[in-house]
Recover the amino acids of this structure.
């Protein structure tokens, strides 16, 4: 319906771009003229060589893969991840239009704060008849323990998101408010990074507003909130439901980006009404929590008793005003869909002004007049649960659309409305605007109009609400431009807010009032220490198993018989630790890799993306090998591959990880595991009954063949082997070396000593070390080794007791 | 009637727990016109590292106690002197059940006593098709709200068997109803769900009940347990009425109230969390001793 096609419309990539009638389009106005704000970008894009476009898109996708960006639905499988569905073409809005959007949303944010303050305060909206009581009293997101509890810092809401769409007449409206734990800000950053790889040109990039300023202001606001009115410093942190939640990647990303610790409920405890972080130095006070967890889960005692991820006593810390929550517990009630029916009126009641930006027209079916309206206009309605907090286009949020039930058999809409009126809400089946998205096709792709909504983020600062200059857009599938089409997911895109002239770069000069602040890494949470320690142990366990399996298959290839004495002993040794060598890549090995990966997944914010990807790659390779590896030489070679990949991971960690306490726990875990494994191996293969060749096997598994040749220039004997693998202070695989390494790391941990004397951990370690330093190979008997191993496990318990509680 | 109420709870853990925190709702409070608490005391052994007293949304006294050191066992002792006023004879001045929606619509309040809190499904009690059908079967045309409440309670008493072995504290009401067996908690949740299903706001009452030894026998010490019954809203004028479906009677002089909630989850006598491995065991002993 382009009455006056613009010159661009004739371009090959745009010739089939046909916005549907009655739908606003972002790229073209109603007369078919390209909107000026898009022009520089489109000109540039259309000038690209056809083969350049997929290359550029691939650069963006590659960035996302390298960065490890993924998302997931809640699932029991902690490790199930999906690729991030980036739509490569940004949505472009002019800064003037954006300013109008932000003005409307700032008013709305203030209104939501006022509604919140009333619902958890005097309750006048209900008692004065502006809100039906059942919408609040029957709402599971209205948290009774919060009634009458003023928020620390004076405000309930600090970080909000709004899902907005554009009407056919070009104006914007709100589809939903996100107040519980708004997600997506981190994804907006990642989209921006990826889109920057696709369109790296200085122009139009220099006219795009940056996102970083928003985050700086929000982080400063969080720190002010956490510190204000306190004598002792208290930190701010981010709280995540953990690796099983769909937003976990984003939580780790945003925590790293903002330099805030990422905590889980287990990391916290409440003592004397104060929320604390369990750290390796004991509990440390927490001042503010940016929670990415629904409030109901925050405290299994005072809130949902079924929560497995909360912190007992947290509600008490809140009630006593000792911690600021972003946002206050109970803010989820503001997301109730039926509330949209009342907000336009409430805005007049509370603030004496109409909403600057309307929200999606909504009718609560508990009132007879509204119910009648919804019934009469059912063909233009989305009808769904009144108390739902999903967005209108989320799955299951709409039961009936356009007068017909979706997927459920019911008698009639009219009867349904009559029977369940108060539980239902009708919302106008809105039409969204369309924006260009890339459509691949065999003969070359093209740009096609797709429906979209934009998520806008707001943060409270001392200067008022600040908005991210940009956001992220959801892009629906082609065709249907009703809001509902968004539920099939589709893609996400970067949102560019552009100026007519170059945007001044963000000054990185420190805010003079704040001065330069080097953010210390902070004290390591005890749970992170625990996971890093066990990651070290599991990785070492994997390496140990891989070496043993390789040794087994090398000998199998040489002898061709599994009945050979050494092989039988090795098979038995492995069987004792749950590894069945009759499978070339034993499930016991896969289980060890998964254990390592689960530990790593819980501390992803603490080591590099490369390290994580190396570990993912390792596990993937091992799994693939289970299908292909044949016993003997083939498996020996496969194990060689795994061994190099493990070393790749440990190398990345060792070379690149900052030497903070977390690295030490990882190293301690490895050294301890390796010492114990070496002791176990020697007990079984370095005694008098050991079959011939057993000593060579030990030296091989201990990766010390060359060293042995150099140092002793004789064949292996029990003395040379024990000397090299137990008593040698220079062989990184010898127990004494490992004990020295343990000592260095344990001494560097906090509270290793008390009052100038070694603490319990060092007291247990030092005699061990002395004993090894003075021992002769002949005194290293299996009994000696068994005792050593027991003492190492006791040491492990002491480490857990002191640092990981 | 004046009572001395004594309760002793012990919790022992398989292995000493690192941090333990408990929320307790055991102390009776004053209730205008019904109940006067002359004295009340809650003590712990070992003494907690911290303790706070507060009142929850529905007005129940709430004690929070935490131990920051490893403990193997906690024993809780509650004693209270409570005067329970003589209940006046109940006159039914509630309106017809069919008038109740209109009465409800006229209530614009989120106050703790507002009936609106008690109509929607809560975690453990809510309209359920089976229980709603059961409640409907008890209704006769023209019944008042109060008659309906009593009819549902009496019918439950008639059809349900008290059976301490059939269910535990976590059994869903629907399962107890299907078996027609349960304890006071199940009876109450079923009655609440049934009443909500026919549009009558209903909630859970936690408290103590005076029990009578068999004729000629002495009262056994510590033989009682905490009790639960139901309160339901019989309209603006008559307000809340209490009925005990386990014993087929209105909750009168023999009943001492600790607190109200939408269901058990709002008023559990004890909710605890501990850090540490292993299970736990608990024992409860209650005495309700009438004072001369």
């Amino acid at each position: 319906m382009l009455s006056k096609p613009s010159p661009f419309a004739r371009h090959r990539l745009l010739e089939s771009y046909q916005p549907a009638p009655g739908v606003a389009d972002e790229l073209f106005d109603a007369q078919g003229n390209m909107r000026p704000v898009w022009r520089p970008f489109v000109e540039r894009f259309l000038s690209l060589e056809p083969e350049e476009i997929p290359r550029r898109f691939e650069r963006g996708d590659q960035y996302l893969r390298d960065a490890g960006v993924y998302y997931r639905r809640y699932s029991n499988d902690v490790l199930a991840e999906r690729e991030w569905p980036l739509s490569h073409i940004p949505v472009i809005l002019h800064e003037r239009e954006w300013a109008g959007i932000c003005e409307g949303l700032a008013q709305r944010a203030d209104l939501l704060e006022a509604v919140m303050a009333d619902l958890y305060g005097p309750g006048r909206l209900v008692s004065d008849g502006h809100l039906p009581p059942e919408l609040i009293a029957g709402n599971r997101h209205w948290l009774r323990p919060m009634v009458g509890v003023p928020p620390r810092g004076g405000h309930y809401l600090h970080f909000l998101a709004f899902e907005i769409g554009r009407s056919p007449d070009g104006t914007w409206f709100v589809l939903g408010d996100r107040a519980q734990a708004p997600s997506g800000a981190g994804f907006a950053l990642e989209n921006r990074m990826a889109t920057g790889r696709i369109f790296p040109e200085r122009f139009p990039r220099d006219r795009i507003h940056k996102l970083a300023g928003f985050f700086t202001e929000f982080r400063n606001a969080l720190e002010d909130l956490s510190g204000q009115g306190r004598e002792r410093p208290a930190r701010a942190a981010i709280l995540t439901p953990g690796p099983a939640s769909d937003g976990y990647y984003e939580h780790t990303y945003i925590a790293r980006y903002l330099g805030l610790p990422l905590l889980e409920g287990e990391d916290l405890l409440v003592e004397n009404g104060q929320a604390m972080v369990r750290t390796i130095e004991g509990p440390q006070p927490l001042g503010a929590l940016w929670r990415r967890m629904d409030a109901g889960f925050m405290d299994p005692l005072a809130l949902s008793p079924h929560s497995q991820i909360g912190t007992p006593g947290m509600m008490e810390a809140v009630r006593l005003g000792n911690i600021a929550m972003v946002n206050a517990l109970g803010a989820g009630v503001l997301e109730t869909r039926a509330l949209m029916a009342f907000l336009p009126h409430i805005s007049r009641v509370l603030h004496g002004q109409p909403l600057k930006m309307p929200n999606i027209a909504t009718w609560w079916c508990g009132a007879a007049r509204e119910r009648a309206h919804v019934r009469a206009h059912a063909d233009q309605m989305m009808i769904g649960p009144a108390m739902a907090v999903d967005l209108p286009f989320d799955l299951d949020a709409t039961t009936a659309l356009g007068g017909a039930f979706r997927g459920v058999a019911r008698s009639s809409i009219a009867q349904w409305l009559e029977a369940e009126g108060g539980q239902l809400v009708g919302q106008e089946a809105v039409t969204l605007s369309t924006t260009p998205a890339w459509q691949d096709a065999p003969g070359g792709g093209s740009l096609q109009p797709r429906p979209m909504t934009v998520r806008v983020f707001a943060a409270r600062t001392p200067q008022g609400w600040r908005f991210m200059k940009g956001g992220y857009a959801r892009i629906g599938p082609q065709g249907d431009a009703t809001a509902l089409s968004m539920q099939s997911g589709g893609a996400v895109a970067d949102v560019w807010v552009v100026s007519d002239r170059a945007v001044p770069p963000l000054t990185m000069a420190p805010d003079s009032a704040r001065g330069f602040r080097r953010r210390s890494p902070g004290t390591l949470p005890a749970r992170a220490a625990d996971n890093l320690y066990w990651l070290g142990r599991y990785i070492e366990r994997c390496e140990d198993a891989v070496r043993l399996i390789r040794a087994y298959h090398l000998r199998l290839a040489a002898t061709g018989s599994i009945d050979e004495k050494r092989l039988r002993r090795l098979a038995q040794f492995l069987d004792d630790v749950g590894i069945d060598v009759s499978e070339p890549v034993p499930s016991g090995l896969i289980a060890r890799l998964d254990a390592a990966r689960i530990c790593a997944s819980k501390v992803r914010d603490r080591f590099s993306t490369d390290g994580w990807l190396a570990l993912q790659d390792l596990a993937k390779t091992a799994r693939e090998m289970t299908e292909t590896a044949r016993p003997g030489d083939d498996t020996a070679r496969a194990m060689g591959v795994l061994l190099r990949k493990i070393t790749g991971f440990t190398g990345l960690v060792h070379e690149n990880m900052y030497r903070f306490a977390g690295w030490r726990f990882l190293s301690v875990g490895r050294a301890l595991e390796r010492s114990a494994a070496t002791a176990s191996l020697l007990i079984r293969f370095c005694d008098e009954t050991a079959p011939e060749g057993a000593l060579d096997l030990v030296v091989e598994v201990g990766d010390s063949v060359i060293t042995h040749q150099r140092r002793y220039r004789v064949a292996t004997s029990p003395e040379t082997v024990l000397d090299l693998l137990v008593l040698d202070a220079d062989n990184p695989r010898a127990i004494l070396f490992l004990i020295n390494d343990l000592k260095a790391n344990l001494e560097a941990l906090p509270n290793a000593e008390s009052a100038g004397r070694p603490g319990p951990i060092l007291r247990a370690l030092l005699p061990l070390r002395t004993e090894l330093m003075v021992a002769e190979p002949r005194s290293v008997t299996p009994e000696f080794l068994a005792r050593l191993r027991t003492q190492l496990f006791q040491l492990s318990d002491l480490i857990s007791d002191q640092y990981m509680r | 009637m004046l009572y001395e109420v004594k309760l002793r709870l012990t919790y022992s853990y398989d292995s000493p727990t690192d941090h333990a925190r408990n929320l307790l709702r055991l102390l009776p409070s004053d209730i205008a016109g019904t109940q006067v608490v002359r004295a009340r005391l809650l003590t712990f052994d070992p003494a907690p590292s911290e303790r706070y007293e507060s009142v929850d949304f529905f007005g129940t006294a709430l004690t929070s106690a935490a131990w920051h050191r490893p403990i193997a066992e906690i024993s809780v002792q509650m004693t209270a002197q409570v005067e329970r006023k003589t209940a006046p004879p109940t006159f039914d001045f509630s309106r017809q059940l069919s008038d109740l929606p209109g009465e409800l619509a006229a209530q614009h309040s989120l106050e703790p006593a507002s009936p609106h809190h008690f109509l929607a499904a809560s975690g453990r009690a809510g309209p359920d098709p089976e229980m709603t059908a059961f409640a409907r079967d008890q209704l006769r045309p023209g019944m008042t709200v109060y008659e309906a409440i009593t009819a549902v309670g009496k019918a439950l008493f008639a059809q349900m068997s008290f059976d301490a072995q059939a269910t535990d504290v976590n059994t869903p009401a629907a399962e107890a109803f299907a078996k027609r067996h349960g304890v006071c908690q199940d009876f109450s949740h079923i009655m609440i769900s049934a009443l909500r299903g026919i549009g009558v706001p209903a909630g859970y009452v936690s408290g103590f009940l005076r029990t009578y030894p068999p004729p000629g026998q002495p009262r056994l010490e510590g033989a009682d347990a905490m009790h639960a019954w139901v309160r339901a809203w019989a309209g603006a004028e008559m307000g809340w009425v209490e009925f005990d479906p386990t014993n087929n009677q209105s909750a009168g002089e023999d009943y001492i109230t600790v607190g109200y909630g939408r269901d058990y989850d709002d008023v559990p006598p004890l909710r605890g969390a501990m850090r540490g491995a292993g299970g736990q065991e608990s024992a409860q002993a209650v005495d309700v001793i009438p004072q001369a």
Notes: Residues 58 and 112 of chain B are 5 Å apart (CA to CA).
